[in-house]
Amino acid sequence: MHEKMMRMHQMGGNNEQAKLSSYEVALKAKAQIAEGTYSFTFEKPKGFQFKAGQHIRMTLVNPPETDSEGNSRFWTLASTPQDKDLVIAMRMRDTAFKRVLSSMTIGTKVVIQIRQHVHAGAFALHDDNSRPAVFIVGGIGIVPAYSMIKDVLERKLNYALVLFYSNRRPEDAPFLSELQKLTKQHPNFTLVATMTEADKSTQKWNGKTGYIDQALLEKYTRKLPSPIYYIAGLPDMVTAMKKLLAVEKVNNSHIRSEEFGGFTMSHSIKNRSATKGVFIAAFVAILIVAMIAIHVFASSKLLEVSHNKSHVEKQLVALFILAMVGVVIIKVKLIRNHRQGKHR
Length: 344
Fold this sequence. Notes:
The chain is α/β, with parallel strands linked by helices. It has helices at 2-10, 96-103, 142-154, 176-185, 214-221, 235-247, 267-305, 309-341; strands at residues 20-34, 37-43, 55-60, 72-76, 85-91, 109-115, 133-138, 161-167, 189-195, 208-209, 228-233, 255-259.
């Protein structure tokens, strides 16, 4: 999703619609909203305007640490245009950016940028309120859907809204309690929450279980007149839901999607394991390089007294090639981990 947002952010070159507005804003609050998920509240600048579901680019100012992913990220706002503050929400993982953000003291400022005009391909609510909006969401993909649903309900717009919301357990589901309250207060909003691993929860769950499937979709959408579908979640989930809608013969032009890549609930464990593997590989490579250095020194002495120079030189070349292979493997692992973990 990071790369997609980057392209959208830069789209248009010098075109009027590509212009950005920049603001320096201070952190006001932070809170845990689900297991491994936090919200960060920032002050809302005077004159700041956005459309529900729209994203911003955030840049840390003189952070105490950084890494290869840089000091900027794209986040979808979880707040609505009517809210007095700006809120972002994210799964936490071990990157320099998120470590800095999580330890940031109240009052610390960051720079945010937003497009002055919402691009036609943006993940934002359609204008025709005669067509229902159906959201199919997994995990942290709830952020743009939450913003759009709240916006519709706060402004009392005449949209029929259906949200399919899948998580492993209730404690993994950001904004679940808020959504449950909203569906009780607004008859035009239907929440279909389901848990895929409810048996592993420490909380009691009396709702639906299992994955979002064709039967579940049909049950709640068969009577809806030409809905627009919004899919947000991990890439595999987005792909699976698109296939389900294709079976239902939903026109592709009626589907909008956002992929939130790089994180699953076990991501932090997998990431630590991958990082451990990289460090082991790096340690082996360092040992090889050290062996080469020792070997070069010893061989240089040996060459002074040895007549079999070619044999020693072949050993040196073989060790050098082995070390280079180790370095390449490490680089490949680092690049792969970087790509998988980019954004959110």
